[in-house]
Amino acid sequence: MRALSITALIVFALDQLSKWAVVQKLDLLQRGEVDVIPPYLNFRMAWNRGVNFGLFSNSADVARWGLIAVAVSISAWVLYWLYREKAGVLSMVAGGLLIGGALGNVVDRIVYGAVADFITMACCGFENPYSFNVADIAIFAGAVGLVLFTGRGTAKPGPKRRKTP
Prior knowledge:
Largest sheet: 4 strands, antiparallel
Strand order of the largest sheet: 1-2-3-4
Helix content: 55-70%
Radius of gyration: 19 Å
Number of helices: 5
Oligomer: single chain
Distance between the termini: 50 Å
Structural class: alpha+beta
Strand content: 5-15%
Shape: globular
């Protein structure tokens, strides 16, 4: 559980620090867009009131608090699941990535009413119209890690079969 806690804390801190630095200090709220490494990396301010790619966007408080409840519930379930499974270090790190990112976005929804997204990437003639943040990267990496690193050795052996001559 130590690896999960440390990872979640680091991800949460990096997410909140990056949002503060870019949104407040770089004044992305007023500037709207900053070219970092054009055309590959840009900061574009976007407020996401929904889930991935703005799905289920709604300015109603019911949707906002519903998404907060879902994120906290999933985080609690992942924590319980990994604890119960007595998962290995890689699984705990993956869980920490997911939980730290989810809680980073929860704080945004509580404080701002929406998630602050600002990273936009493009490559090879493809211009990505969507923005994301450090928490989103961590959530994605954590979910992939949980798929890859959990569930090993937990399957119960089936009945033994007799070999026929």
